[in-house]
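Interim report, section 4.2 (structural modelling).
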Amino acid sequence: MRALLDFITKYNHWFLLVVLEGISFVLLFQFNRYHNSVWMTSANSVVGQFYAWENEALRYISLGQVNEDLMQRNLVLEQSNEVLRRRIAELTHDSTQAERKLTDQLQDIRLLHAHVITNSVMHRDNFITIDRGTADSVQAEMGVVCGTGIVGIVYIASAHYAIVQPLLNSGSRISCRLRGSEYFGYLKWDGVDPLYATLDDIPRHARFKVGDTVETSGFSSVFPPGIFVGKVAAIEDSDDGLSYQLKVHLGTDFSRLQDVSVVQQRFQSEIHNLEHQADSIAQL
Amino acid sequence: MLLTSLQRLLWMLVLVAAQLLVFNHIHLFGYATPLPFVYFLLRFPLNTERWSILLWGFVCGLLTDIISLTPGIGSAAMTMTAFVQPLLLNLMVPKDAVEDFRPGYRTLGFWPYVYYVTQLTFLFTLIYFLLLSFSFHHFLDFIISFVSSWALTLLLCLIFEGFHKKGHE
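Predicted structure of the assembly:
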């Protein structure tokens, strides 16, 4: 308080200047019709500028919603693209039963939008929390995608939240293939760079090049086939030299992940159960 | 102290009266109107309290505003000039100056004093005419009336100081 008083005493002439100029300007605008009118118009243009800025800011804020909508739209288009691609393949050559099955499967997919609540890319085993749970019929083993590619697989789900094991987790293995060929392998993350993952087990006779698209293979009930994963960034030999190991530049920027969609397939639990039964029979 | 204040008050009234009766009626070439009442501020000695000179400036400006029907313009310009005067004087006085150093031809020297008056009258006239025109729609008119009025004000202030010096001698 004393310091404040000292401050005011020391700089009293500044305060006095402001007060006296303030009084002068009040007089100026109060008693001069001309100044008053000029002030009003210039003030109006200033106010107008503020409104313009406010509008711009609001539009900027609503970009989030626009982005969500676009992402949903993108996913739908990607799905329909895949269906059409399959359809063309069917018409141009005799399709196998498996392909037909995949095409049918695509039509039973529902995408459930979710927000990312927590996220990390710093650890070796990262996890993501999303704001959907069993109440929205989200269950473990469901795939999670975003507008730019796959994200991961639901690990556990509570009533309103679910934890997703993203690609950036040492335990994550996602079956992927090269678009335009049927060669597939498992996509893993080496725990270093969140922008790159490794696709293993691509046979040596496979023909491909850097820049080719990597997509989901659909060989599991988690992801439908044809969802964009990333692009081949580098080709290396595997440790045993029997296959190729591809460095994949991921389409999903995990560090900026905000909106995702959970892939719900109609027969997923059925397929899942079947697979489990098959596993248990094999173990016997 | 009281005597100084009375003297100042007298000076102020004289200058304001001169403004009302004489200088307000001068519109040289339709543009130049001298505003020599700013001379009131030029004479304040070095050791004047800042708040005191601010108040004097404001009151003097307000009085001229009332008589010239320009509310706010003179008081704003005079207050700002009163704020700058001690700063400028501090820059110009010799190091060994006495405490109640009063700016003038003799104390500052002829040319430094002219320089001092030039700057303060420039500032004052500029603010005065900026507030008076309040827009740049007639920029050329503004420049002409500002510069010519400034020149007249400067000239009159220098003449006043000349008389003042003579009066003291």
